[in-house]
């Protein structure tokens, strides 16, 4: 299922390539794409250009920069064409090769990821600095090589950013109280390779995969549990080609599996009206719609309200596909920030809390709330943060 | 046209720098090296000139940890030849590096003739000298530093270079070639090169090697580092604690007290 | 001049630079500590009258030559070498600025003399001259000794207050004759003045400065909000101008302007020496940076350790609120 084997040259002869050419030109993809109206070449047009032998025009435009890898098009395609997984990454790779200049912020994010293992350019030796503040014991494999049941792959935002660290601390507390046998890689951990961002940079993706697989092979564990849906995607779709054969969970569905033991621990009442945002990678991509909702309903006092667009129809926060580092670029082009679009929907539900399960969403939605002036009406919390809050000491 | 770019690796200051146990140098165990920032600009300027005027670019670096990465990246960006000076006895100072560069340029077959030698204006560890003027002197070439723009003249015998002076003033100089320029900033930020291209370069490009020349007079450094220490903020600033709101509130009070608004 | 401390007086476009007075102040101290004279060396063409302002020195050596009318480092170095050879001073202090960069290095190489860059202070210890150097973008301090004479010391701006080195008097001036070859290999064609900017930063009383830490162009408007609230103007460090987020006229630092406002707010600026050079004399310096070890906190009077992007709007809000309250008071 790896996209590595398909290239622009081999595409026509590949089963996926043939599948792409069965496109009806119905336009469901462009219609559902959150940036469909500003993209010069949404998926439908790309396929039309492909048929007309005019793909060059697609690569030399910056249209692909607006693709946030949200899987909406792929989810709606009546032919089931693997747009987000096969077609769009190939187009992005070619666009990068043809673009005279990559937007500076994205360029830096890519360079930083290569050099420091995180897009923020933070020192690799500070990746595990948050562990001291967790309040519960956290084992680091490099210091204690005993096997563990779960390797908790923390990821970048959840290691370095203050709000991401809140999430990590909450997760650590939950794991501890549930008696999960886990360890982390600490400073040895590098970005798993956020697929959307790294579709621009398959070479960088390969470098990270090589590195991470080598680190994994040093230790013994049964499964990888990760806080980041993008990492989950990478491990699920790309790493098996390099031999990744461990169990794989994202923290949210993982905790849902332990709900019967978790529920008795949730003793503090949280009288919040909560609306849950389905992240693209967990939701549309993997159909983990119910697990986070089960967890939220298990918290005493929580009332769950759905946004108009939920589950498969959820609107992306705009962070994927490199979008996290293209906000300036989008702003300069006059595009509405997707996070602002989504936040308006959230606020319209009347909820107090916007619950999320992807680290990108916390900073993006908190930003959007501030910009729109709703930050007094609504707060953003990861599902793990709410669970930890409901768990009394 | 042949442009030679001289490159050095410098300590990457993103990671915390630790002092070695003898207290006189950086602890190599905690050190990562990165291409000196202005050397990266020198390479970019060389590539821009190649795009404009044709010709070839050679990148020549002093051996150091991670230098191969920098050279393969240079090749992937468009350098035609990449070479490193190897087998030094020990660490080297800037002044020694300049002499090594000069001798290799003079003696290594195929490096001359050269029209322009570009290198960064200054590296963060250039304690005992600067590469550009030292190399210029050794090779008896004219030198200009703090350059932010270069134009080759049609004759191919001179170039026009822009140098930065204080207060935003710039000077345009005409300089006879061959010449050495210390680049402050390229006309465009250093370009991005996809990792896949660098990995291809790693497989297809050979980094040539030049032996470190023996300096006639031994070339011992003339400066002695007695002690090195981390520059902790001397408690100069009074830090205002708390949330952004709380700290801002206090600061606002301080500014108001001083009649600043 | 044997054993004396010499200072290269930086002369550019008919004026002695401020940094020269700072370096002279340092030279004066070192000379007094070691009990030797302080000599200023002035290079130029028809610039003898500038020697008057170098009065803090015991004497001035003036070199007049047509080829010294403009500062060309190799020519200046040659002149200095001829002046210093045989004179055997203890040390030559050269300001590390855009004007003089390279001169000290060339003099050291041509005379086989040790060169030490990045000096922020010079001390004497047991009869030896020790330079205190700031390396690696301001993160490391090193004590360095020269193992020969003269020691060529490249001095960072800001080593001493300029006023301590300023003195007008009829200082004794010796004219030195040098022989310089006109190789015609390098020639100044013209100066390019900066575009008439909308503001003259050097005249502003309040400056809000942004650095890499504001992360993208869009956030400059946050700084503009703060500047507006404070009645000031936005400026930036070099990386911000390089990115095109602000025009060249707004650059503060080594290649930009030196400013001395009443208030300088540095947001997301780490405090590399090149920037500090341009703003260290501001009356009140406030810095916001997420790194508690950022060198900017060494020059700042007040600091907030945090994300500039969070603090900026909070500060603007606090000031606007205070202003509004004041208006209704």
Question: What order do the helices and strands of chain A follow?
Answer: HHHHHHHEHHEHHEHEHHEHEHHEHEH
Residues in helix, % of chain C: 25-40%
Named CATH architecture of the largest domain in chain C: 3-Layer(aba) Sandwich
Tally of separate helices of chain A: 19
Uncertain segments of chain A of ≥5 residues (pLDDT<50)? none
Shape call of chain A: globular
The CA-CA distance between the termini of chain A, in Å, is 44 Å
User: What is the CA-based Rg of chain A, rounded?
Assistant: 21 Å
Main sheet properties of chain A = 4 strands, parallel
**What low-confidence regions of chain C span 5 or more consecutive residues with pLDDT below 50?**
none
How many beta-strand runs of chain C?
17
Strand content of chain A: 5-15%
Summarize the main sheet of chain C: 9 strands, mixed
CATH level-3 fold name of the largest domain in chain A: Rossmann fold
Alpha-beta classification of chain A:
alpha/beta
Binned, the helix content of chain A reads: 40-55%
What is the mean predicted local confidence, pLDDT of chain C? 91
Annotated CATH topology of the largest domain in chain C: Rossmann fold
* Tally of discrete structural domains of chain A: 3
First-residue to last-residue Cα separation of chain C: 67 Å
Furnish the topology, listing elements before pairings.
The complex is a heterotrimer of chains A (393), B (261) and C (329).
Chain A: H1 15-20, H2 28-32, H3 43-51, H4 55-59, H5 72-76, H6 83-98, H7 104-116, E1 148-153, H8 157-160, H9 162-177, E2 182-183, H10 195-198, H11 202-216, E3 221-226, H12 229-237, E4 247-250, H13 251-257, H14 259-262, E5 273-276, H15 290-297, E6 303-305, H16 327-333, H17 338-348, E7 353-356, H18 359-372, E8 379-382, H19 383-390
Parallel strand pairs in A: 1-2, 1-3, 3-4, 5-6, 5-7, 7-8
Chain B: E1 2-7, E2 9-11, E3 33-35, H1 37-53, E4 56-62, H2 67-77, E5 81-86, H3 94-107, E6 116-120, H4 131-139, E7 143-152, E8 158-164, E9 170-176, E10 179-183, H5 195-204, E11 208-211, E12 223-230, E13 238-239, H6 244-257
Parallel strand pairs in B: 1-4, 1-6, 4-5, 5-11, 6-10, 7-10
Antiparallel strand pairs in B: 2-3, 7-8, 8-9
Helix pairs in contact in B: 2-5, 3-4
Chain C: E1 5-9, E2 11-12, E3 15-16, H1 18-34, E4 38-44, E5 59-64, H2 73-84, E6 91-95, H3 103-111, E7 115-125, E8 128-135, E9 140-146, E10 151-155, E11 173-176, E12 186-192, E13 206-210, H4 220-230, E14 233-236, H5 238-242, E15 263-267, H6 273-279, E16 284-289, H7 296-299, E17 302-305, H8 308-328
Parallel strand pairs in C: 1-4, 1-6, 4-5, 5-11, 6-10, 7-10, 13-14, 13-15, 15-16, 16-17
Antiparallel strand pairs in C: 2-3, 7-8, 8-9
Helix pairs in contact in C: 2-3, 4-8
């Amino acid at each position: 299922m790896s996209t590595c084997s398909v290239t622009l040259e081999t595409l026509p002869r590949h089963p996926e390539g043939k599948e792409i050419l069965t496109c009806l030109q119905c336009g469901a993809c462009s219609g559902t794409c959150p940036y469909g109206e500003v993209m010069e070449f949404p998926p439908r047009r790309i396929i039309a250009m492909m048929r007309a032998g005019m793909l060059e025009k697609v690569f030399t435009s910056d249209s692909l920069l607006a693709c946030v890898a949200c899987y909406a098009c792929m989810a709606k395609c009546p032919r089931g064409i693997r747009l987000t997984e096969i077609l769009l990454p190939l187009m992005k790779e070619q666009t990068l090769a043809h673009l005279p200049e990559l937007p500076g912020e994205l360029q830096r994010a890519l360079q930083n990821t290569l050099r420091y293992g995180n897009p923020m350019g933070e020192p690799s030796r500070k990746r595990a600095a948050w562990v001291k503040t967790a309040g519960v014991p956290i084992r680091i494999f490099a210091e204690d090589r005993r096997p563990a049941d779960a390797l908790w792959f923390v990821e970048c935002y959840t290691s370095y950013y203050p709000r991401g660290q809140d999430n990590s601390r909450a997760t650590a507390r939950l794991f501890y109280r549930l008696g999960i046998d886990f360890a982390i890689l600490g400073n040895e951990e590098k970005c798993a390779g956020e697929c959307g961002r790294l579709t621009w940079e398959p070479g960088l993706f390969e470098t990270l995969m090589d590195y991470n697989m080598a680190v994994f092979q040093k230790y013994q564990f049964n499964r990888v549990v990760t806080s980041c849906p993008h990492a989950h995607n990478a491990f699920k779709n790309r790493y098996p080609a390099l031999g990744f054969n461990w169990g794989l969970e994202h923290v949210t569905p993982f905790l849902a599996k332990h709900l019967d033991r978790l529920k008795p621990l949730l003793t503090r009442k949280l009288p919040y009206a909560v609306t849950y945002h389905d992240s693209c990678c967990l939701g549309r991509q993997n159909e983990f719609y119910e697990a986070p909702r089960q967890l939220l309903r298990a918290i005493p006092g929580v009332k769950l309200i759905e946004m108009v667009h939920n589950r498969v129809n959820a609107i992306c926060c705009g962070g994927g596909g490199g979008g996290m580092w293209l906000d300036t670029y989008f702003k300069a082009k006059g595009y509405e920030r997707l996070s602002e679009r989504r936040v308006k929907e959230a606020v319209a539900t009347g909820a107090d809390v916007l619950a999320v399960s992807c680290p990108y969403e916390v900073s993006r939605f908190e930003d959007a709330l501030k910009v729109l002036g709703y930050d007094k009406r609504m707060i953003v919390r990861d599902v793990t943060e709410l669970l930890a809050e409901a768990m009394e000491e | 046209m042949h442009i030679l770019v001289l490159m050095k690796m410098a300590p990457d200051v993103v990671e915390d720098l630790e002092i070695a146990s003898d207290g006189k140098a950086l602890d190599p165990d905690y050190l990562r090296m990165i291409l000196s920032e202005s050397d990266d600009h020198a390479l970019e300027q060389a590539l821009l000139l190649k795009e404009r005027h044709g010709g070839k670019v050679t990148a020549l670096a002093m051996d150091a940890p991670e230098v191969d990465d920098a050279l393969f990246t240079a090749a992937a960006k468009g350098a035609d030849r990449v070479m490193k000076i190897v087998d030094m006895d020990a660490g080297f100072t800037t002044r020694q590096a300049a002499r090594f560069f000069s001798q290799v340029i003079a003696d290594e077959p195929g490096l001359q003739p050269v029209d322009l030698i570009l290198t960064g204006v200054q590296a963060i560890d250039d304690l005992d000298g600067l590469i550009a003027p030292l190399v210029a002197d050794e090779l008896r070439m004219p030198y200009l530093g703090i350059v932010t723009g270069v134009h080759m003249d049609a004759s191919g015998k001179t170039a026009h270079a822009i140098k930065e002076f204080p207060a935003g003033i710039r000077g345009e100089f005409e300089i006879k070639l061959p010449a050495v320029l210390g680049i402050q900033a390229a006309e465009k930020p250093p370009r991005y090169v996809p990792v896949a291209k660098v990995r291809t370069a790693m497989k297809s490009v050979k980094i040539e090697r030049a032996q470190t020349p023996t300096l006639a007079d031994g070339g011992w450094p003339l400066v002695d580092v007695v002690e090195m220490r981390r520059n902790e903020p001397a408690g100069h600033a009074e830090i205002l604690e708390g949330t952004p709101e709380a700290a801002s509130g206090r600061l606002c009070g301080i500014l108001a007290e001083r009649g600043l608004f | 001049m044997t054993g004396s401390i010499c200072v290269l007086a930086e002369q550019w476009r008919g004026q002695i630079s401020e940094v020269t007075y700072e370096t002279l102040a340092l030279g004066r101290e070192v000379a007094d500590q070691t009990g030797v004279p302080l000599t200023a060396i002035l290079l130029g063409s028809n610039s003898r009258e500038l020697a008057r302002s170098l009065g803090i020195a015991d004497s001035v050596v003036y070199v007049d030559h047509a080829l010294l009318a403009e500062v060309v480092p190799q020519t200046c170095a040659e002149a200095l070498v001829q002046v210093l050879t045989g004179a055997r001073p203890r040390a030559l202090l050269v300001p590390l600025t855009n004007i003089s960069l390279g001169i000290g290095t060339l003099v050291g190489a041509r005379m086989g003399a040790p060169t030490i860059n990045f000096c922020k202070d010079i001390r004497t210890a047991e009869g030896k001259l020790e330079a205190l150097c700031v390396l690696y973008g301001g993160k490391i301090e090193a004590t360095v000794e020269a193992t020969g004479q003269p020691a060529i010391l490249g001095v960072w701006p800001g080593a001493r207050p300029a006023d301590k080195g300023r003195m007008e008097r009829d200082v004794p001036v010796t004219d030195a004759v040098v022989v310089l070859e006109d190789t015609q290999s390098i020639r100044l064609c013209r100066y390019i003045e900066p575009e008439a900017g909308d503001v003259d930063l050097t005249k502003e009383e309040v400056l809000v400065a942004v650095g890499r830490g504001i992360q993208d162009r869009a956030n400059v408007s946050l700084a503009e909000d703060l500047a507006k609230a404070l009645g000031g103007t936005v400026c930036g460090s070099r990386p911000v101008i390089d990115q095109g987020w602000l025009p060249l006229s707004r650059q503060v630092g080594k290649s930009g302007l030196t400013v001395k406002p009443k208030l300088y707010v540095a947001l997301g600026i780490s405090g590399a020496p090149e920037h500090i050079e341009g703003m260290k004399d501001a009356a009140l310096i406030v810095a916001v940076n997420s790194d508690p070890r950022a060198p900017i906190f060494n020059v700042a009077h007040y600091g907030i350790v945090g994300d500039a992007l969070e603090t900026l709007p909070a500060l603007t809000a606090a000031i606007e609120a205070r202003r509004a309250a004041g208006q209704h008071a």
